[in-house]
Amino acid sequence: MALSLFDTSATLRPLRAQLRAAMERVLDSERYILGEEVAAFEREFAAYCGTAHAVGVANGTDAITIALRAMGVGPGDEVVVPSFTFYASVEAAVNAGATPVFCDIDPRTFCVTRETVEAAMTDRTKAIVAVDLFGWLPPLAELRDLGIPILEDAAQAHGAQRDGRRSGSYGDAATFSFFPSKNLGALGDGGAVVTDDDDVAELVRRLRFHGSTDKVTYTEVGYNSRLDELQAAALRELLPELEGWNDARRAAARAYAERGLAEVPDMELPQTGDEREHVFHLYVVRHPDPDAIEARLAERDIGARGYYRRPVHLQPAMERHGAERLDLPGTAEAARTHLALPMGTELSEQQVDEVVAACASGST
Ligand SMILES: Cc1ncc(COP(=O)(O)O)c(C=O)c1O
Question: Which of 69, 158, 297, 361 is in the most buried spot, having the most CB atoms within 10 Å?
């Protein structure tokens, strides 16, 4: 049985007619940029996240750069950011003019903690980029107590909760990606910034549109970074499905735990929290020899992958920030041991059994 790491086609298949109708709606409107679909999606997504504003942009990377700039981050400022994340979390901060200061994570959650962030703070720290990695939220309330503005990078955590609040509603601003494989994915690139701060929202709106509100007067040097009408129309059809999809992902995670994965020697399962916390964008285990597990799965044509084997501070582009000398033991441990196993909205118990059996094969 071939099984891929994730399968977005299976998720979207039942919605094809609905998506076609949404595309047709945009064609009929003859409006393709910043029209009614984007405005409506922004209202609907803000309501879902529980924030005053959502502003659609071209992708999740631009969302971070633009949000940081709107929060006042610029050249000379330091931004504390984890190294164990997708490269874009850091790249976007550098593109905002900031110097990244890498902090460690807790390898059990793959996320930053108050202590790891505090250890990286200096007088020049202007913001913290807190990444909701793999669908789990770091302790955002505790991070707020540090008194530094927080940008929540929620690209992997649409709908995740902590203490009864949804991702996006904790920080001074939060950013989302709608890359097709995300928990809420568009039919191409897309992103959003959400915030309760009227001034930040207003500045994000200008920055996504060349620093202008009217294309006559330009008050900032901004970007051409808009969510387009076709993507917004698709996202409006898909947003109502998100809660059900996240429930299905949680059910698959429960199945892994209940159907023997925890009994595979040395296998550390991801932490799950209470019912609504984790949204399992990826189902990531830890194992002292992840390559051996990956090889056992590959033999049965089952996809598995280590996402961040070389953490961002060790990437060649980061050499100029002197980060290769850093000692980040939690990051090193997570980088060495993590492995994503198949996860998705359509993963069946039978498929979970196949994955568990493959992981267990050859073990003593
Ligand atoms: C944690 C994280 N941050 C930022 C991004 C960037 O999003 P995008 O690919 O839409 O630019 C991604 C996803 O790709 C991500 O996983």
Answer: 158
Give Cα separations from 161 to 113, 137, 231, 273, 278 (angstroms): 17, 7, 25, 10, 7
225 close to ligand 1 (CB < 6 Angstrom): no
pLDDT, one tens digit per residue, over 201-223 is 999 999 999 999 999 999 999 99
Return the ligand 1 atom nearest residue 62 CA.
11
> What is the pTM assigned to this prediction?
0.97
CB 186 within 8 A of CB 178: yes
Ligand 1 center to residue 231 CA distance, Å?
16
Q: Please, which residues have CB within 8 angstroms of residue 148's CB and are 6 or more apart in sequence?
A: 80, 121, 125, 126, 127, 128
Using alpha carbons, list the distances in angstroms from residue 238 to 105, 229, 249.
32, 14, 16
Whole-angstrom Cα distance, residue 311 to residue 309?
6
Q: Summarize pLDDT for 77-128 with one digit per residue, the tens.
A: 999 999 999 999 999 999 999 999 999 999 999 999 999 999 999 999 999 9
Q: Whose CA is closest to 204, among 231, 229, 225, 218?
A: 225
* Rounded distance between C-alpha atoms, residue 47 and residue 49, angstroms: 6
User: What is the C-alpha separation between 344 and 280, in angstroms, rounded?
Assistant: 8
13, 22, 67, 280, 323 from 99: Cα distances, Å: 43, 42, 16, 31, 11
Which pair of tokens denotes residue 233?
């129309």
